[in-house]
Amino acid sequence: MKSTYTFLFFLFLFISCKSTKESTMYSDKLRFKKELSPLSKQTWYQKDYLQDSIPGISLDKWHNKRKPKNKSVIVAVIDTQIDLKHEDLKGQIWVNPKEIPNNGIDDDHNGYIDDINGWNFTGTKSGGYVVWGNFEYTRVIRNWQQFFKNKTENQIDALDLPNYKEYQRAVKMQEERSIYYNTWLQSIKHSIIVYPLIKDTLKYFFPKEDYTYQQLDSLYKKHKINDKTYRQRREDNDRDLGSLIDYRMLCLESNENTLEDILEHKAQIDSIVNKNLNLNFNERTAIGDNPLKLEKGYGNNLVCNNKVGYRIIQDHCTKVSGIIAANRNNTIGIKGIAENVKIMPLSISFSGDEHDKDIAMAVRYAVDNGAKIINMSFGKEFSLNKEWFFDAFKYAEEHNVLLVHCAGNNHFNVDENPYYPSDNSFDGSKEVCGNFINVGSISSRLDSTFVSSFSNYGKQNVDLFAPGEEIYTTSTGSTYVSDSGTSLAGPMVSGTAALIWSYYPKLTAAEIKQIILDSGTVYDIKVIVPGTKDKKVPFSELSKSGKVLNVYNAMQLAERVNKHRG
User: What is the DSSP track for 523-536?
Assistant: First the structure.
């Protein structure tokens, strides 16, 4: 692996001496100030800085070139379920050519019955699926409390100390999150109680109920009788006019525009408190597998399950998949990054943290069934069985499959705070594989807020950044929305890798990884470190490459690397 990186490094130095560089640098003096038009807000990430004055990934610049015919590439998306009927994903979903639909037989003998479009590893025996599951730190406590509960560090054997410290970290997080979510739940219950009174009161001032937040703010300043916090007012059960306006403003800040919105939030937070954080709740029972054994065949083939009585969880995967593979040749919706790509949906996600077993088995399924790239837009701060997905990552590397992972939305340094799955065991040892790319998020603002405030970062464990803020993409029900998160930055890289491989199929996963890192755009500016108020560092210090994804440069460099392979 090291020899491959050395070859690419010297090749890149050679190429960079030519008139056309594959890595571009922009400085503070070229800061982006342009106001985005409504259309540009939807497609900003596809633009090129020099051509459009927008710090995108130069996707349009590449697709506007004359190109030869390319080959199809399969991208596995390990995520939630997906909307298979989305208008902009028609014809873009992988179909297992060796499986006969709905005959109840494992025709291709891969261990999965009727896996026509992929597999749902959280499907239940009854034909349903897991909606709510524990957080990983909750599982850590449940699994290890019999060994560590009420014990001090000097009572623990040296070999057990790493697990003991993880247990203590999990207990601390469980306590903090329990307080947070229980407080939130109490606030929502209060909002439901006072909603009718607030509605009737505000009708006096706004008969059509067409008020804005700014109008409420002005009214609040006029009628407030004290400067209590929301919590003080809630606990004192204040019902004066100022308090009622304050309650309504807080609801609007939380996107609780109607009573139905408030009730929906209550259902979600109530389930977090009573299921995600509940030591006595175990979602694995409904799946019916042995959670301590890696095995094939558990779950079901329903990657798009609209079962009556179940909350639909298809939105996230649909968003991610659209960025990678939305149809570029129709006249609707959006244009995906890669043109000739098939999405293999593998469902492991729900409300809660993914299981290490499901991560490992989904990776192995993807490798065994022809995927070249695996996108993983999920993460968690704890891992009970990380060796399972470490082995799966090595398996993918052995089969020349690239892994792309989002860096996470915790606005912390992943060199110091574990975030899984990762190619790092966070114990001081070297990376477990060389085919893993970790991606942070940037915005369209080329100033001190260039790095998204929510994005994780790390000079060692984040490889590069890509657009992940205000990204317009596909959503459930053949709709389109703007959303933000490193979950949307990851598929930018996965789509680029698919594009490279579709034109240069002889390149290795290691070569494609290095091409993507080497060809990125360098922005010579200082940015606010996520999670801080105003601490600034050079953008280059927040990732290993110090760069932002650039599709055009990557394709140019890939062409040169491919030629030098002979």
Answer: EE-EEEPTTSSS-E
